[in-house]
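Supplementary Methods, section 5.1.

A reviewer requested that the exact input to the structure prediction be made available. We therefore reproduce it here, unchanged from the version used in the analyses.
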Amino acid sequence: MDTTELGFPIVDEDISFSKAVYYNFNPIPVKKPWRDATGGFGSFIPLQGWIQLYDSNGICGETFCSLGMIDNILPLVLTGETKKASEWYQDLYWKLRNFGFQSGQIADLGQFDFLMLDIMARRHGKPLHRFLGAKRDWCAIYKGGGSLLASDEDLVADMERYVKEGNTIIKFKVGSDWGQNMERDVRRLAMVREAVGPDIGIAIDANQVWSVDEALRFADLARPYNPAWYEEPCHSHDMNAIQELKDRGVGMKLGYGESMRNAFAFETYAEKGVDHLMPLVGRMSKMSDLLKIQSLCTEKGLMFSAGGTSWLNAAFGALFEEDGLLENHEPMTQPMGEILSVKSEEKNGKFYLPQIEGTPIRVNFEKLEKDHTLDGVKYFYAERMKGMFAVRAAY
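The structure derived from this sequence is encoded token-by-token as follows.
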């Protein structure tokens, strides 16, 4: 196969879209109320709905999505036209550009890119990861959790359990009391380190809560416990602050990337001294950017991992180099996993992907209905949407 503008070693195929089915969800609760240093994500996981997009032969790609898929993408693709997958992508990319390349509309475009890849994988009768060129059927993971609402004892118990499950890197939240209770954070870090021993990687995630001075002060307090990395201590777009952290001797690996939507931003991160690039898979503007970012990490000797809706994104994790990691953020993946009828098997610090065509998950719609999680279903047909252009550019 030839490498194409799609960024994977696959053929750039013609696609015409015939219909879409959108399943809207009622809020899906987490097991326990959740909070990080800046307040997210509350009592519910951030899932809004599920989309099935069909080509003219009735083959569908499907993924989690927001209502933006209905407003911003479907009117542009349910037109009856036939284009190469790369042409569809480029056409939408430039139609949506004025919303900004960090916008929700650009994240919707990334989900559309995923849908096209899923359709093509199913056309070829292959699991998505194998269609995209993966040579293995697993991906390495690290496990995260550690809500700031959790007691010290519950935090330690969760981290010990993660290690017993076979994870060699674990992560929890710091930034207690909106970043003003560093004493609590350091106490919890010390307790976890004592509980899991010196050989387990412990990452800490501040969710951008601190100024440079505060972040450096916490780094001094945390350094004796040898964090695996220090994630987003300052604002993710304040590149000068990140540079200052490095110049003033933060003394541990800095991790950034979940707020960025394309590979260009990661080049700036690398220039500013970020040691660990961390794209959020489901919010990227293009799926193949993950491989560009990974290549940048290899070139610069940086650490690489990716987060997001892990059950879905395991397909891309199987493409990563063996030291590349996929985050398994249990507070989100656990309730999400319960609405799936098919998903990867979690074992010994890995996800083992199911051998099914296309995306590595299937939604359990019967359970969604039984649990009253399914709010409603909407159908969209190309013959009814021709000529519609619902997206209003942000001039």
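Confidence is low (pLDDT under 50) at residues 390-395. These observations are discussed further in the main text.
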